[in-house]
Amino acid sequence: MLRLGLWSDKTVRDTLLDRTHLGKIVIGKTKGNGHKKRPKDADGVVMIDQKDWKEYQGLHEAVKTQEEHDFILMHLARKTKMVKRSTSKTIYPLTKILKCGLCGHFLGFQQRQERPVEVRKCWYTDPYGVRCPNMAVSMVQINAAVQQAVEEQIRDVELKITSVDANRIEHLKNKLIELNRGVTAKERALEKEQKAFQADIYTVDEYKAIVLKLKGSITALNNEIVATKTEIKFLEESSSAEKLNVLLEFKRLIVNPDLTYEMQNELYKTILECVEYKRTEAGGIELNILFK
């Protein structure tokens, strides 16, 4: 089946094993009736052993040779099942957060006696027996890199508050002043036109059209004033300031020595979307940290 633009493992395997690509026609793989509405007296479907299939040379062109087919069989025979991942009941810091930077799967953890927690080497093995090469690493290195990233994130958010947010709020406040001036000008114009109508300068229809246009402009300006005030309030009460508070609270709490691994993990979840880790050829580590 095609899912998200990719063939499933079973579809690829069945396609590779299909003998019709050898130019053959194979019949007699099953017998009986497999339809869900089959007659009551009909036998159900039965799979026939491969040695009893009937095979004939077809008229269609082969797309692979027998040698190539044998090579495929040999290759697939090396690995017939996916390796099942063993899971630990212990919740470590960064559980379900730390991912392999090569294959994208979540990584596991282990802790040996009298040693710090370690990120295990990537467990994933593809359907053809090729294991992901991402190696193990001490959580000491991961934690140090994450803490450094948190400090950098705090500085970035502080800078954003003092520049981007502040500038945006100042711009909106200036806009609000202009909008209020616009409303005042339209209201004065409305009073002026009312006096002109009383002086018989306009007909009733002309006056109604002018009033309708001016009141429409005033309504539009008032709506924009409400929207601008709402945005200013949002920027002042939340936005980067709220994000900064969350980061600072995390920084304060994470150093508490009484926190369990599970409590630390819950804290990490408040600020981190995911952390992608991969080991470099030189033995260092590369982290891609995505904050919420």
Write the topology of this structure.
Blueprint: E1 2-3, E2 6-7, H1 9-17, E3 24-27, E4 30-31, E5 46-47, E6 54-57, H2 66-77, E7 98-100, E8 109-110, E9 118-119, E10 137-138, H3 139-198, H4 204-237, H5 239-253, H6 261-271, E11 272-279, E12 285-291
Parallel strand pairs: 7-11
Antiparallel strand pairs: 1-2, 3-6, 4-5, 8-9, 9-10, 11-12
Concise summary:
The chain is α+β, with helices and mostly antiparallel strands and 292 residues long.
Features:
single chain; 292 residues; alpha+beta; 2 domains; 3-stranded mixed β-sheet; 3-stranded antiparallel β-sheet; 6 helices; 12 strands; 14% strand; flat
Tell me what you see in this structure.
This protein is an alpha+beta fold and 292 residues long. It has 2 domains: 2-77, no CATH class; 84-292, no CATH class. Helix content is 48%, strand content 14%. The protein is built from 6 helices and 12 strands. The two termini are 34 Å apart.
